Backbone:
DNA sequence: ATTATTGTATTAAGCTCTTAATACAATAAT
DNA sequence: ATTATTGTATTAAGAGCTTAATACAATAAT
C-alpha cells in the first residue's frame, strides 16, 4: 500500500488526509479496527509520534474512536461520515473552481476542460 | 491587494503561486515592470529574502526576467506563458479529479457536483 | 559626481515539523 | 500471574522555513 507522502507539506497533515480518504472510500469500513499506531507508522514509513499526531486529530474530529488498550476503530456513525465526506468534497470543488477562475478561465471553459479530462481518464 | 498567505505551507511557495496567477490572469501584463523585491515584500508583508526566493524561482521558470538594476519585467513570450498556464490548469484538474475519485465519487457524480457549484457561484 | 535604487548575498536567531529513543499505565492474551 | 500489546508522554536533536539585520556591486536618477 503506497502512502506517497511528499516533503512539501507537513507529513501529519498528509496522513490525516490519506486516512480520511480510506474511510470515505470504504477501504476502512465503519466500525472496523484500525491497525495500531506502531503498525500504521511502520506501514507509512513514518515515526510513531507523527502517526499518533494524525490519529489524535482524526479522533478529535470524531472519525476515529480510541479504546485505550484495545486499539482504535472507525466510527460507526454513518451520517457523520457522510456529512464529513460531503463537506470535504465541497471544499475541494470550491477551491478548485476558485483557482481556475483566478487563472482566468471562465465557468464554461472549466466545464469543457473537466469533461475532456474525464474522457481521457476513461481510456 | 490581499496576498492572503497561510501558515500551513511555505510562504515562498505561495508567493510563487500568487505571482503566477497574476501573470496568467493578466493582472501583470506581458512585458510590464514588476515592483522591486523590497516593494513586493512590503506589499505582501513578507521578508525581502522570502520574496527574493520566490522571484528567483519564477525567473528560473522563465516567467520573469531580471534586468539587474532596472528591476524585473514579466516575460514577453506569450506562447511560453500560455503553455505554462495550460500545464498548470491540467495539473489542477487532474489532481482535483484524482482526489474526488479517491473519496469515492464517480466521474458522473463529479460532473454533477461541479455543475451545481458553478450554478451557486453565478448567483 | 553624488545619491538613490536595483538585485543579491551572508549570518544568526527562532520557529515548526520530524525523527529518535525511551518510558509508563492499562489491559488483552497466554 | 506473567507477557505482550495498546495508547500516550517526554526529551533531545536535526532539518527547513522565515525573519532580521546588514552589506555589496551596478546603474539609474539627480
Residues:
Amino acid at each position: 500500500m503506497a502512502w506517497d507522502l511528499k516533503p512539501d507539506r507537513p507529513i501529519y497533515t498528509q496522513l490525516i488526509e490519506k486516512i480520511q480518504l480510506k474511510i470515505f472510500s470504504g477501504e476502512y469500513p465503519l466500525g472496523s479496527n484500525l491497525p495500531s499506531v506502531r503498525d500504521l507508522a511502520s506501514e507509512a514509513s513514518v515515526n510513531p509520534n507523527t502517526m499518533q499526531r494524525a490519529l489524535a486529530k482524526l479522533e478529535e474530529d470524531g472519525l476515529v474512536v480510541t479504546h485505550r488498550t484495545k486499539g482504535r476503530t472507525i466510527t460507526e456513525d454513518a451520517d457523520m461520515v457522510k456529512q464529513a465526506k460531503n463537506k470535504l468534497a465541497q471544499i475541494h470543488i470550491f477551491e478548485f473552481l476558485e483557482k481556475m477562475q483566478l487563472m482566468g478561465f471562465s465557468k464554461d471553459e472549466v466545464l469543457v476542460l473537466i469533461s475532456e479530462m474525464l474522457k481521457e481518464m476513461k481510456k
The interface with chain B takes residues 8-10, 13, 21, 24-26, 85, 88-90, 92-94, 96-97, 99-100, 102-105, 107, 110-111, 113-115, 117-118, 121-122 of chain A (CB under 8 Å). Chain A has a mean pLDDT of 92. The domain at 11-76 of chain A is CATH 1.10.10.10 (Arc Repressor Mutant, subunit A).
